[in-house]
């Protein structure tokens, strides 16, 4: 299959032994930053790890009336 959009040309300038580990490392760092951001701004986990009892979720239904 021919490379029609030029994406493979990056490997002419960057060795795969250097580029691939850096790319995967950047993906891992971004994933950790996103997860820490979500965990740091969630009140549910702070309460849970603090030993507080969590309340069960309640659902209320509104049924349409048939006239």
Description:
This protein is mainly alpha-helical. The protein is built from two helices and no strands. It has helices at 16-40, 43-49. Its main location: membrane.
Share of residues in strands: under 5%
Which parts are unreliable, with pLDDT below 50 for 5 consecutive residues or more?
A: none
Helix amount, in percent? 40-55%
Give the topology string: H per helix, E per strand.
HH
Major beta-sheet overview? none
Q: Overall 3D geometry?
A: elongated
Task: Look at the helices and sheets and give the structural class.
Answer: mainly alpha
Please report the number of helical segments: 2
> How many strand segments?
0
Report the average pLDDT across residues: 84
Report how far apart the termini are: 64 Å
Overall radius of gyration:
25 Å
Question: What is the oligomeric state here?
Answer: single chain
Task: Give a summary of the structure in a few sentences.
Keywords: Antenna complex, Bacteriochlorophyll, Cell membrane, Chlorophyll, Chromophore, Light-harvesting polypeptide, Magnesium, Membrane, Metal-binding, Transmembrane, Transmembrane helix. The protein is mostly helical.
């Amino acid at each position: 299959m021919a490379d029609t959009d030029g994406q493979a040309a990056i490997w002419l300038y960057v060795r795969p032994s250097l580029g691939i580990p850096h790319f995967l490392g950047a993906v891992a760092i971004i994933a950790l930053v996103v997860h820490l951001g979500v965990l740091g701004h969630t009140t549910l986990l702070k309460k849970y790890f603090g030993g507080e009892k969590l309340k069960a979720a309640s659902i209320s239904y509104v049924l349409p009336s048939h006239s």
